[in-house]
Design brief:
single chain, 107 residues, mainly alpha, 3 strands
Length: 107
């Protein structure tokens, strides 16, 4: 039988890709993840519990419908052209004009 590894807080944050505040607010305070005391001033998380949490997060993600891609150019994520309203086209044109004016204005 292989013993479960205890991951230190830094390893947990790296595996989840989050910072300490997000770890506490999203996982520790809500009870989704629990620390194990491994020393006088050291805590960790059992690796199997972290793997189970990551799998749970994947299942939650897969249950939700995919978000619509909003790209700034005139193509959608699948390559088809977007239909844009005249006001959004005007805003893009205004942004382009301002960008050019700022680029050529002497400072």
């Amino acid at each position: 039988m292989i013993a479960n590894r205890v991951l230190r807080k830094r390893e947990v944050m790296e595996r989840l890709g989050i910072r300490k505040t997000a770890l506490y607010e999203n996982f520790i305070k809500t009870g989704r993840l629990r620390f194990v005391k491994i020393g006088a001033r050291a805590v960790g998380v059992i690796e199997d519990e972290l793997d189970a949490l990551i799998e749970e997060l994947r299942r939650e993600r897969d249950r939700k419908p995919r978000a619509v891609c909003e790209r700034p150019d005139f193509t959608s994520c699948d390559g088809r052209p977007h239909v844009r309203s005249s006001s959004s086209v005007a805003a893009l044109n205004l942004f382009s004009i301002v960008s050019v004016l700022l680029a050529i204005t002497p400072r």
